[in-house]
Amino acid sequence: MYACAWAERIEDMASCFGEYAIKLADSSCSTSMTRTCWPSSLIPSTQNAVSCLYKTKLSTQKQLLITVTWYKNLMGQGLSINVGDDPSSSALRVNTNIFRKKKGNRTFETCNSKIEAFWDLSTAKYELGPEPASGFYVVVVVDSELGLLLGDMREEVVVNKFKSGIPAAKFLLVCRREHFSGNALYSTTKAQFCDTGMAHDILIRCSGEGKDLKYPVLSVSIDKKRVICVKRLQWNFRGNQTIFVDGLLVDLMWDVHDWFFNPASGYAVFMFRTRSGLNSWLWLEENMVQKEHEKLQFSLLIYACRNP
Fold it and tell me: Does any domain span residue 179?
Protein backbone atom coordinates (compact mmCIF):
# COMPACT_ATOMS: atom_id res chain seq x y z
CA MET A 1 0.00 0.00 0.00
CA TYR A 2 1.28 3.47 -0.86
CA ALA A 3 1.19 4.60 2.79
CA CYS A 4 3.80 2.00 3.66
CA ALA A 5 6.43 3.46 1.33
CA TRP A 6 6.85 0.22 -0.55
CA ALA A 7 7.01 1.59 -4.10
CA GLU A 8 10.72 0.98 -4.69
CA ARG A 9 10.70 -2.60 -3.39
CA ILE A 10 7.55 -3.53 -5.28
CA GLU A 11 8.98 -2.05 -8.49
CA ASP A 12 11.96 -4.37 -8.09
CA MET A 13 9.64 -7.32 -7.54
CA ALA A 14 7.40 -6.43 -10.47
CA SER A 15 10.31 -6.99 -12.86
CA CYS A 16 10.54 -10.59 -11.60
CA PHE A 17 6.84 -11.49 -11.73
CA GLY A 18 6.83 -12.77 -15.28
CA GLU A 19 9.84 -15.03 -14.83
CA TYR A 20 9.31 -16.21 -11.28
CA ALA A 21 5.52 -16.30 -10.83
CA ILE A 22 4.37 -19.60 -9.33
CA LYS A 23 0.98 -21.24 -9.78
CA LEU A 24 -1.16 -22.77 -7.06
CA ALA A 25 -0.10 -26.18 -5.78
CA ASP A 26 -1.02 -28.95 -8.19
CA SER A 27 -0.97 -32.73 -7.95
CA SER A 28 2.83 -32.82 -8.03
CA CYS A 29 2.92 -30.84 -4.79
CA SER A 30 0.18 -32.55 -2.85
CA THR A 31 0.60 -36.09 -1.60
CA SER A 32 4.31 -36.49 -2.30
CA MET A 33 5.14 -33.08 -0.86
CA THR A 34 3.22 -33.38 2.39
CA ARG A 35 6.22 -34.31 4.49
CA THR A 36 8.55 -31.70 3.03
CA CYS A 37 5.97 -28.89 3.21
CA TRP A 38 4.84 -29.72 6.73
CA PRO A 39 7.85 -30.83 8.82
CA SER A 40 7.39 -31.24 12.54
CA SER A 41 10.93 -30.16 13.45
CA LEU A 42 10.62 -26.46 12.60
CA ILE A 43 10.64 -24.06 15.53
CA PRO A 44 8.17 -21.17 15.08
CA SER A 45 9.63 -17.70 14.67
CA THR A 46 9.08 -15.11 17.38
CA GLN A 47 6.82 -12.14 16.69
CA ASN A 48 8.55 -9.04 18.10
CA ALA A 49 6.60 -6.13 16.58
CA VAL A 50 3.16 -5.38 15.15
CA SER A 51 2.36 -2.05 13.51
CA CYS A 52 -1.18 -1.08 12.44
CA LEU A 53 -1.91 1.93 10.24
CA TYR A 54 -5.38 3.48 10.53
CA LYS A 55 -6.98 6.19 8.43
CA THR A 56 -9.27 8.44 10.46
CA LYS A 57 -11.82 10.81 8.93
CA LEU A 58 -13.14 13.48 11.31
CA SER A 59 -16.54 15.18 11.12
CA THR A 60 -14.75 18.23 9.72
CA GLN A 61 -13.66 16.03 6.74
CA LYS A 62 -10.07 16.24 7.97
CA GLN A 63 -8.17 12.98 7.52
CA LEU A 64 -5.27 11.70 9.61
CA LEU A 65 -3.07 8.61 9.66
CA ILE A 66 -2.64 6.99 13.09
CA THR A 67 -0.05 4.25 13.58
CA VAL A 68 -0.18 1.99 16.63
CA THR A 69 2.89 -0.19 17.18
CA TRP A 70 3.28 -2.98 19.72
CA TYR A 71 6.85 -4.14 20.24
CA LYS A 72 8.93 -6.46 22.36
CA ASN A 73 12.71 -6.32 22.75
CA LEU A 74 15.43 -6.87 25.33
CA MET A 75 14.20 -3.82 27.26
CA GLY A 76 10.70 -5.21 27.60
CA GLN A 77 7.34 -4.67 25.90
CA GLY A 78 5.92 -1.36 24.83
CA LEU A 79 3.39 0.66 22.89
CA SER A 80 4.01 3.46 20.41
CA ILE A 81 1.42 5.81 18.88
CA ASN A 82 2.25 8.06 15.92
CA VAL A 83 -0.13 10.60 14.42
CA GLY A 84 0.56 11.88 10.91
CA ASP A 85 2.45 10.57 7.92
CA ASP A 86 5.95 11.00 9.41
CA PRO A 87 6.60 8.03 11.71
CA SER A 88 10.24 9.07 12.25
CA SER A 89 9.32 12.31 14.00
CA SER A 90 9.66 11.97 17.76
CA ALA A 91 7.24 14.86 18.27
CA LEU A 92 4.42 12.61 17.04
CA ARG A 93 5.28 9.66 19.26
CA VAL A 94 3.87 8.43 22.55
CA ASN A 95 5.91 5.66 24.16
CA THR A 96 5.28 3.62 27.26
CA ASN A 97 6.84 0.47 28.62
CA ILE A 98 3.97 -1.63 29.91
CA PHE A 99 6.09 -2.95 32.78
CA ARG A 100 6.56 0.62 34.04
CA LYS A 101 3.34 2.37 33.12
CA LYS A 102 0.49 0.08 32.17
CA LYS A 103 -2.15 2.79 32.34
CA GLY A 104 -1.95 6.45 31.48
CA ASN A 105 -2.58 9.28 29.04
CA ARG A 106 -0.71 11.97 27.19
CA THR A 107 -1.63 15.15 25.34
CA PHE A 108 0.34 16.73 22.50
CA GLU A 109 -0.21 18.75 19.34
CA THR A 110 0.60 17.79 15.77
CA CYS A 111 -0.87 18.21 12.28
CA ASN A 112 -2.62 21.36 13.56
CA SER A 113 -4.66 19.23 15.95
CA LYS A 114 -4.77 18.54 19.67
CA ILE A 115 -4.14 14.85 20.32
CA GLU A 116 -5.05 13.02 23.54
CA ALA A 117 -3.98 9.39 23.93
CA PHE A 118 -5.37 7.09 26.65
CA TRP A 119 -4.31 3.49 27.31
CA ASP A 120 -4.87 0.76 29.89
CA LEU A 121 -2.85 -2.47 29.64
CA SER A 122 -3.09 -3.40 33.33
CA THR A 123 -5.27 -6.47 32.63
CA ALA A 124 -4.07 -7.19 29.09
CA LYS A 125 -3.72 -10.80 27.97
CA TYR A 126 -1.39 -11.89 25.17
CA GLU A 127 -1.34 -14.80 22.72
CA LEU A 128 1.02 -14.68 19.73
CA GLY A 129 3.28 -11.73 20.45
CA PRO A 130 3.50 -8.18 21.83
CA GLU A 131 -0.01 -7.19 20.73
CA PRO A 132 -2.62 -7.84 23.46
CA ALA A 133 -5.56 -10.07 22.57
CA SER A 134 -7.97 -8.93 25.30
CA GLY A 135 -8.28 -6.96 28.54
CA PHE A 136 -7.06 -3.59 27.23
CA TYR A 137 -8.00 -0.37 25.47
CA VAL A 138 -6.27 2.32 23.44
CA VAL A 139 -8.12 5.55 22.69
CA VAL A 140 -6.93 8.49 20.58
CA VAL A 141 -8.93 11.73 20.75
CA VAL A 142 -8.37 14.28 17.98
CA ASP A 143 -9.71 17.80 18.55
CA SER A 144 -12.23 16.50 21.11
CA GLU A 145 -13.42 13.80 18.70
CA LEU A 146 -12.85 10.06 19.14
CA GLY A 147 -10.36 9.31 16.38
CA LEU A 148 -9.43 5.72 17.28
CA LEU A 149 -10.75 3.09 19.71
CA LEU A 150 -9.01 -0.26 20.11
CA GLY A 151 -9.44 -3.18 22.49
CA ASP A 152 -12.29 -5.14 24.00
CA MET A 153 -12.69 -2.57 26.83
CA ARG A 154 -13.31 0.38 24.51
CA GLU A 155 -17.09 0.58 25.03
CA GLU A 156 -16.59 0.75 28.79
CA VAL A 157 -14.03 3.52 28.32
CA VAL A 158 -16.34 5.57 26.13
CA VAL A 159 -19.12 5.35 28.72
CA ASN A 160 -16.97 6.07 31.77
CA LYS A 161 -14.49 8.61 30.43
CA PHE A 162 -16.48 10.39 27.73
CA LYS A 163 -20.02 10.74 29.07
CA SER A 164 -20.60 14.09 27.39
CA GLY A 165 -21.54 12.52 24.05
CA ILE A 166 -18.24 13.19 22.32
CA PRO A 167 -18.57 12.51 18.56
CA ALA A 168 -16.79 9.51 17.07
CA ALA A 169 -14.85 9.72 13.84
CA LYS A 170 -14.73 7.01 11.20
CA PHE A 171 -11.51 5.00 11.14
CA LEU A 172 -10.31 2.12 8.99
CA LEU A 173 -7.37 -0.26 9.25
CA VAL A 174 -5.51 0.00 5.94
CA CYS A 175 -2.18 -1.66 6.67
CA ARG A 176 -0.76 -4.12 9.17
CA ARG A 177 2.94 -4.94 9.43
CA GLU A 178 4.40 -7.77 11.51
CA HIS A 179 8.04 -8.54 12.28
CA PHE A 180 9.27 -12.04 13.12
CA SER A 181 12.72 -13.36 13.99
CA GLY A 182 14.05 -16.90 14.20
CA ASN A 183 16.27 -19.50 12.60
CA ALA A 184 13.56 -20.89 10.34
CA LEU A 185 10.91 -19.46 8.04
CA TYR A 186 7.97 -20.50 10.18
CA SER A 187 5.46 -17.85 11.24
CA THR A 188 1.81 -17.84 12.26
CA THR A 189 -0.54 -14.90 12.50
CA LYS A 190 -4.16 -13.82 12.11
CA ALA A 191 -5.66 -11.35 9.65
CA GLN A 192 -9.08 -9.95 8.80
CA PHE A 193 -9.11 -8.87 5.16
CA CYS A 194 -12.32 -6.82 5.33
CA ASP A 195 -14.55 -5.26 7.98
CA THR A 196 -17.31 -7.81 7.42
CA GLY A 197 -15.01 -10.83 7.14
CA MET A 198 -13.76 -13.22 9.78
CA ALA A 199 -10.26 -13.45 11.24
CA HIS A 200 -8.20 -16.07 9.42
CA ASP A 201 -5.22 -18.11 10.63
CA ILE A 202 -2.20 -17.69 8.35
CA LEU A 203 0.74 -20.08 8.45
CA ILE A 204 3.98 -19.61 6.46
CA ARG A 205 6.51 -22.45 6.40
CA CYS A 206 9.72 -23.09 4.55
CA SER A 207 11.43 -26.48 4.59
CA GLY A 208 13.42 -28.68 2.24
CA GLU A 209 12.76 -31.54 -0.14
CA GLY A 210 15.88 -33.20 1.25
CA LYS A 211 17.20 -33.60 4.77
CA ASP A 212 19.94 -31.04 4.08
CA LEU A 213 17.38 -28.40 2.97
CA LYS A 214 19.13 -28.32 -0.40
CA TYR A 215 15.86 -27.78 -2.22
CA PRO A 216 13.70 -25.50 -0.04
CA VAL A 217 9.93 -25.42 -0.44
CA LEU A 218 7.69 -22.54 0.64
CA SER A 219 4.09 -23.19 1.64
CA VAL A 220 1.41 -20.74 2.76
CA SER A 221 -1.82 -21.91 4.39
CA ILE A 222 -4.96 -20.06 5.41
CA ASP A 223 -7.18 -21.75 8.00
CA LYS A 224 -5.09 -24.95 7.64
CA LYS A 225 -5.73 -25.06 3.89
CA ARG A 226 -2.62 -24.68 1.76
CA VAL A 227 -3.03 -21.98 -0.89
CA ILE A 228 0.45 -22.05 -2.47
CA CYS A 229 3.43 -24.39 -2.56
CA VAL A 230 6.58 -22.97 -4.15
CA LYS A 231 9.42 -25.35 -4.98
CA ARG A 232 13.15 -24.62 -5.35
CA LEU A 233 13.24 -21.17 -3.80
CA GLN A 234 16.85 -20.64 -4.88
CA TRP A 235 15.41 -19.75 -8.28
CA ASN A 236 11.81 -18.86 -7.40
CA PHE A 237 12.72 -16.54 -4.55
CA ARG A 238 10.34 -13.80 -5.78
CA GLY A 239 6.84 -14.17 -7.09
CA ASN A 240 3.14 -13.57 -6.67
CA GLN A 241 -0.14 -15.44 -6.71
CA THR A 242 -3.77 -14.36 -6.55
CA ILE A 243 -6.02 -16.16 -4.07
CA PHE A 244 -9.64 -15.73 -2.92
CA VAL A 245 -10.51 -14.98 0.69
CA ASP A 246 -14.03 -14.08 1.86
CA GLY A 247 -15.02 -13.49 -1.75
CA LEU A 248 -12.17 -11.01 -2.22
CA LEU A 249 -9.23 -11.10 -4.59
CA VAL A 250 -6.05 -11.12 -2.50
CA ASP A 251 -2.62 -10.75 -4.08
CA LEU A 252 0.03 -12.74 -2.24
CA MET A 253 3.63 -11.70 -2.89
CA TRP A 254 6.85 -13.21 -1.52
CA ASP A 255 10.49 -12.18 -1.61
CA VAL A 256 12.86 -14.54 0.21
CA HIS A 257 16.04 -13.65 -1.71
CA ASP A 258 17.83 -12.00 1.21
CA TRP A 259 16.83 -14.80 3.59
CA PHE A 260 19.00 -17.18 1.54
CA PHE A 261 21.64 -14.93 0.00
CA ASN A 262 22.02 -12.13 2.55
CA PRO A 263 21.02 -13.69 5.89
CA ALA A 264 23.23 -11.43 8.02
CA SER A 265 21.25 -8.25 7.30
CA GLY A 266 18.41 -9.29 5.01
CA TYR A 267 14.93 -10.67 5.64
CA ALA A 268 12.09 -12.46 3.90
CA VAL A 269 9.03 -10.39 3.00
CA PHE A 270 5.44 -11.51 2.43
CA MET A 271 2.59 -9.23 1.41
CA PHE A 272 -1.15 -9.93 1.30
CA ARG A 273 -3.17 -7.20 -0.36
CA THR A 274 -6.82 -7.04 -1.36
CA ARG A 275 -7.84 -5.52 -4.66
CA SER A 276 -11.17 -4.57 -6.12
CA GLY A 277 -11.12 -5.79 -9.71
CA LEU A 278 -9.88 -8.35 -12.23
CA ASN A 279 -8.52 -5.95 -14.81
CA SER A 280 -5.44 -4.64 -12.99
CA TRP A 281 -3.13 -7.09 -11.23
CA LEU A 282 -0.05 -4.91 -10.81
CA TRP A 283 -0.15 -3.24 -7.41
CA LEU A 284 1.55 -0.11 -8.70
CA GLU A 285 -1.17 0.36 -11.31
CA GLU A 286 -3.93 -0.15 -8.78
CA ASN A 287 -2.36 2.29 -6.33
CA MET A 288 -2.81 4.98 -8.96
CA VAL A 289 -6.45 4.00 -9.48
CA GLN A 290 -7.11 3.96 -5.75
CA LYS A 291 -5.56 7.39 -5.33
CA GLU A 292 -7.83 8.82 -8.00
CA HIS A 293 -10.96 7.46 -6.32
CA GLU A 294 -9.70 7.90 -2.74
CA LYS A 295 -10.14 4.19 -2.06
CA LEU A 296 -7.86 2.16 0.19
CA GLN A 297 -7.48 -1.60 0.27
CA PHE A 298 -6.13 -3.66 3.16
CA SER A 299 -2.48 -4.78 3.21
CA LEU A 300 -0.72 -7.26 5.49
CA LEU A 301 3.09 -7.23 5.43
CA ILE A 302 5.20 -9.84 7.18
CA TYR A 303 8.95 -9.47 7.70
CA ALA A 304 10.98 -12.51 8.76
CA CYS A 305 14.52 -11.87 10.01
CA ARG A 306 17.05 -14.65 10.57
CA ASN A 307 18.72 -14.80 13.94
CA PRO A 308 22.54 -14.63 13.83
Answer: no
